[in-house]
Amino acid sequence: MTDAAPRLAALTETLLGASLPVRIRAWDGSEAGPPGTPVLVVRHRRALRRILWKPGELGLARAWVAGELAVEGDLYDALDRLAGLIWERQPATDADHRGGPLALLRDGDARAAVRDLVTLARPLPAPPPPPEEAVRRGGDPHSRGRDREAVSHHYDVGNEFYELLLGPSMVYSCAYWEPGGTLEEAQHAKLDLVCRKLALDSGRRLLDVGCGWGSMALHAAREYGARVTGITLSREQAVHARKRVAQEGLADRVEIRVQDYRDVKDGPYDAISSIGMAEHVGSARYREYARDLFALLRPGGRLLNHQIARRPEPDESAYRVDEFIDSYVFPDGELSALGTTVTELERAGFEVRDVEALREHYALTLRAWVARLEARWEEAVRLTSPGRARVWQLYMAASALGFERGRLGVNQVLAVKATSAGAAYLPLRTRTWPAV
């Protein structure tokens, strides 16, 4: 019989209480669902087993990473159609993630639908997660050792892979776009924007926290004459950054260290840049992070904190870390609302002087990265693994839609340490707001 897709479509609609927004093709070749839409290809019934044993986003993600689910057609369109069923439903409780297939049981029609789904999936013992999933360790999620492991999982997957993904700039954060510009131009503009906000010039000391592959450090030293210390927990990033420093003849102005920000003791610095690093700090450690950076600045020194933000929850205790990202992308990463970030910086003693929202810019950046990945897919698979490439494709495409739909934001917060005479002076400046 070739009826898996119609059965699966009917069961899905019963369990979710909504019409299926995409077409389904099952492992037996059958299809069901609205024509003219992207096709969700269920290549193996093992995908259903994963969803039964881990209901929700993580089960779907495991099936995607394992290659048991795929999309034919526009991936962004498919994810946009599925967003209301996956990411924008009410958050699950802890109880919803325990008990395997029994966790889906409901009264009436849903109970019968689950029985039929179990029959269709033939759920033997739960399939093991794809190997790209982070290995969980005990202890404090943001101890120095566990932070090193989390950073290594994300960044130590090969510098060649990141070169393929990011392009020559090797900048792994939101770019700053002009209409019609290229990714390289937009990343150069972002680095320059940060340097101007920090008022860098010849001889000023800059600490670049989470320096990545050294792009910000190199730009600040080369274009502004700053003396830069870049720190990262990734040994692969440090090797690459040091090589770039040597190639550009900037070893007298740039030092790259493998070091935790909590262990930096050679302040004061004139300026600190933290670009896409604070997401790794964790809410329990954020006040410590803000106080440590405050202590490392001279009076009148500036901090540029460039950080992804989430929308605030009506009840903040309801916030849950995204399961897919926590398991496959950024272990132990947490997003804060913008207001929380500003409040913690102010509590540490900073005066917040400027906030610039770049949400639309990150959507464009992510789409550019996805395009690079898909254009060189076979090479990306060779450099990492099929599962790793699928992780990045799903993560970046879904994140792009998150920024476009306003579920995510990214902000540059400029904060200043007061001088002995009081508040630090910043020159007057205006922003241009074009007509829509």
Features:
four-stranded mixed beta sheet; alpha/beta; elongated; 436 residues; Rossmann fold
Can you put this structure into words, describing what you see?
With 436 residues, the protein is an alpha/beta fold. The protein folds into 2 domains: 4-121, no CATH class; 144-417, Vaccinia Virus protein VP39 (Rossmann fold, 3-Layer(aba) Sandwich), CATH 3.40.50.150. The protein contains 16 helices and 11 strands. The chain has helices spanning 4-16, 46-53, 57-65, 75-86, 109-121, 144-155, 159-166, 183-197, 215-224, 235-247, 286-296, 323-329, 338-347, 359-375, 377-383, 386-404, and strands at residues 23-25, 31-32, 39-42, 69-72, 205-209, 227-232, 254-258, 269-275, 297-310, 350-357, 408-417. It has a 7-stranded mixed beta sheet with strand order 7-6-5-8-9-11-10, with helices on both faces. A hairpin with a 5-residue loop joins strand 1 (23-25) and strand 2. Helix 15 crosses helix 16. The radius of gyration is 23 Å and the shape is elongated. Mean pLDDT is 89; it is low at 90-107.
